[in-house]
């Protein structure tokens, strides 16, 4: 029996991440309490001085107007009611979205792809209805027809088999999500961690601006912020990839863990955390450089504007490339227990067919998830507006103008926010698990044959069809088992 691997991968980066995180938190206390002066002297910050004045004011005996107190109570009650409605509507739409994914996974992918085309065509024909010059409208119809024709040609000649293959993988994804719903709780914890980290570092940015600390301190905290956020994302990706790999490689064997999600969380937050921190650091450097380039573009100097534009183009391409390399490399980390650099090196050795399949599969999935969630976001906004209007009329009939104003403004916004948060909890695992399954099948398709021969024949047929167009190979014949 193979010896269980227990050593920490990229241990140095694990230690570096936590040391830097602690240093940034400790140093934030200094930033918050000390104001930087050009003369070199220091004094208590404006924030601390304001807090001292506020404390002194609280010590004085003051009387609060009862009308103001009642008004604040109504505002608080209205906002809490809006939050409750937002949670209810967001959770309900997310559950509907989940059933939509699980019942019609193939339609889900194809509808998401074609929805983008239909939206473009819809915008093209809008001038026909809102412009008095019908010539412009007819040109819009002609352009919409051209876009639709190009989309149909691209679909039939290039993307059809890639989309079919992605649909098959997505069906496996929703089956894994139904079997292991604890993954949704994990992604909810990820959102909470990201929110807390964002709150901490935004507070640091505020203190740096108020107390006039050096621009280099701002850049350091910007790098720290992106490092924490990127590492948090890659840790969750490792959890999802490990879950997908366990289900794909170990399902039906005695080696499958009893609690796959829990085992994936333990492995990703301990053994492979250093690899996530390593990948997160590289992503953080590129994000920080992109932010610096944006600030250069705000200068009045034309040369700096051109330099900023070139830097942004280069960094955008590098980030897109690294996003794919890092996810592929971290898959090797969690499956084969190799350091991140070794996983990234193995990515460079994959065949063109494997790269094309995973790349197109990722792009197709991203479009499908984005536009399906867009429809549900519009639906959430419409429901929020409808509920806010009903509540607004109710408050206005009762003469409560302030709660009525708060209702008409905040109800749609809060409903939309909570819907997006819950949809993120649903769609982020779908994205990461599907991508990991794409790698699983392209790396080791024979494993599926041991579990389900018919499904293996279907997968290999679609995989061969999707890669045949990118090479000189002939289209494969359809197997008898799926005819």
Describe how the helices and strands are arranged.
Blueprint: H1 11-33, E1 34-36, E2 42-44, H2 46-59, H3 66-103, H4 105-130, H5 134-179, H6 182-210, H7 215-250, H8 260-271, H9 273-297, H10 302-336, H11 340-347, H12 352-398, H13 401-443, H14 446-451, H15 453-468
Antiparallel strand pairs: 1-2
Helix pairs in contact: 1-6, 1-7, 1-9, 3-12, 3-13, 4-5, 4-12, 5-12, 5-13, 5-15, 6-7, 6-13, 7-8, 7-9, 7-10, 7-13, 9-10, 10-11, 12-13
Q: What does this protein look like?
A:
The model is unreliable at 59-64 (pLDDT under 50). The radius of gyration is 27 Å and the shape is globular. It has helices at 11-33, 46-59, 66-103, 105-130, 134-179, 182-210, 215-250, 260-271, 273-297, 302-336, 340-347, 352-398, 401-443, 446-451, 453-468, and strands spanning 34-36, 42-44. A hairpin with a 5-residue loop joins strand 1 (34-36) and strand 2 (42-44). Helix 1 crosses helix 6. Helix content is 84%, strand content 1%. By secondary structure, it is mainly α. Strands 1-2 form a two-stranded antiparallel ribbon. The chain has one domain.
**How many domains in all?**
1
Number of strands: 2
Give the spatial strand order of the biggest sheet: 1-2
- Biggest β-sheet description: 2 strands, antiparallel
> Could you estimate the helical fraction of the residues in percent?
over 70%
Q: Give me the number of helical elements.
A: 15
The sequence of SSEs as H and E is HEEHHHHHHHHHHHHHH
Task: Give me the secondary-structure category.
Answer: mainly alpha
Gross morphology is globular
Low-confidence stretches: 59-64
Radius of gyration: 27 Å
Overall pLDDT confidence: 78
Q: State which percent range the strand residues make up.
A: under 5%
For this structure, the quaternary state is single chain
Task: Give the terminus-to-terminus CA distance.
Answer: 41 Å
């Amino acid at each position: 029996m193979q010896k269980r691997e227990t050593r920490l991968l990229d241990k140095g980066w694990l230690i570096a991440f936590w040391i830097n995180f602690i240093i940034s938190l400790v140093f934030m206390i200094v930033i918050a309490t000390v104001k930087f002066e050009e003369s070199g002297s220091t004094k208590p910050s404006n924030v601390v001085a304001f807090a001292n004045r506020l404390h002194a004011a609280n010590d004085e005996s003051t009387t609060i107007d009862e009308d103001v107190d009642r008004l604040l109570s109504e505002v608080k009650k209205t906002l809490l009611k809006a939050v409750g409605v937002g949670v209810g509507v967001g959770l309900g739409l997310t559950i509907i979205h989940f059933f939509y994914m699980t019942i019609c996974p193939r339609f889900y992918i194809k509808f998401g792809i074609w929805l983008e085309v239909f939206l473009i065509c819809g915008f093209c024909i809008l001038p026909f209805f809102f412009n008095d010059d019908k010539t412009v409208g007819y040109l819009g119809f002609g352009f919409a027809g051209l876009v639709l024709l190009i989309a149909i040609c691209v679909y039939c000649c290039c993307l059809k088999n890639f989309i079919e293959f992605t649909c098959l993988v997505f069906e496996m994804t929703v089956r894994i999500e139904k079997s292991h719903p604890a993954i949704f709780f994990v992604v909810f914890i990820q959102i909470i961690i990201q929110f807390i980290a964002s709150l901490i570092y935004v507070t640091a940015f505020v203190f740096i601006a108020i107390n006039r600390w050096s621009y280099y301190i701002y850049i350091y905290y910007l790098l720290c912020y992106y490092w924490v956020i990127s590492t948090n994302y890659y840790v969750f990706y490792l959890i999802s990839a490990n879950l997908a790999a366990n289900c794909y490689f170990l399902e039906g064997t005695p080696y499958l863990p009893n609690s796959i999600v829990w085992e994936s969380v333990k492995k990703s937050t301990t053994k492979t955390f250093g690899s996530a921190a390593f990948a997160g650091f590289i992503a953080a450097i590129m994000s920080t450089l992109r932010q610096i380039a944006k600030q250069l573009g705000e200068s009045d100097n034309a040369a700096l504007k051109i330099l900023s534009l070139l830097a942004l183009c280069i960094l955008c391409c590098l980030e897109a490339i690294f996003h794919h390399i890092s996810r592929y490399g971290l898959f090797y980390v969690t499956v084969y227990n190799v350091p991140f650099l070794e996983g990234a090196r193995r990515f460079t050795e994959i065949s063109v067919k494997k790269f094309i399949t995973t790349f197109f599969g990722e792009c197709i999935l991203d479009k499908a998830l984005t536009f399906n969630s867009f429809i549900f976001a519009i639906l959430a906004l419409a429901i929020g507006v409808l509920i806010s209007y009903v509540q607004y009329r109710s408050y206005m009939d009762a003469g409560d103008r302030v709660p009525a104003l708060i209702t008409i403004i905040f109800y749609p916004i809060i409903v939309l926010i909570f819907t997006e948060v819950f949809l993120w909890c649903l769609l982020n695992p779908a994205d990461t698990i599907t991508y990991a399954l794409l790698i699983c099948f392209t790396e080791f398709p024979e494993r599926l044959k041991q579990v389900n021969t018919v499904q293996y024949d279907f997968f290999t047929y679609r995989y061969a069809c999707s890669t045949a167009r990118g090479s000189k190979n002939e289209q494969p014949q359809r197997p008898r088992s799926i005819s």
